[in-house]
Amino acid sequence: MKRKITQWIRKQVQDSGAKGVVLGLSGGVDSSVVLALAKEALGRKKVLALILPCHSQKKDLKDAELMIKKLKVKSKTIDLSKIYDFLIKILPKAQRTTQANLKARLRMIILYYFANKLNYLVCGTSNKSELMVGYFTKYGDGAADILPIADLLKKEVRQLAKDLKIPEQIINKPPTAGLWPGQTDEDELGITYEELDDILDRREKRKKQVLPKSRLDKIKIMIASSEHKRQGPKICYL
User: What pTM was computed for the model?
Assistant: First the structure.
């Protein structure tokens, strides 16, 4: 799995004429795995990890810095908190998720700024579990040029993380997008990754589902309602 993904990353960079990749490092298992794979594929001098806190938890920042120290890749930290606060101040009031999506889109702006500056590709960190149910911000963390782990369920990402010797504290901590204090992916999804992976895996392999119908219906709705996120803009052909 590692060999196939690293070869794929290398080919994408070569075919595009890019010089390397840039990615957002959150301190979570997904971005840590992608960072390790990118370094393996391209070497540490062709990978730039951006740490982009926006009222982020200190533990996540420490875990991100731990990965930088471990892999010795190039990195830059840019705190977006003041920019975010200014935008929230001048924009109309909105619900918490709308404001949280603004954080993801601010990070996307910075990633593409550096990608343009360096002739790098933006390397996304979303996994298959999140992509299938639309658990990402459109034109935020969903914006990327390549998605190395997009065909891996969360459980497969964790297994790969062990193979890559990602620190246990990163592998085992509750997944979070860091959108607000105490926020976790599973709370927002309303289902555990273990359940989600089981449903998606059985769905793809056409195996009999074993979880309650209410769980299955929830995932079907999430997949259907997020289809627009996995497609490009609709074009009116004349």
Answer: 0.93
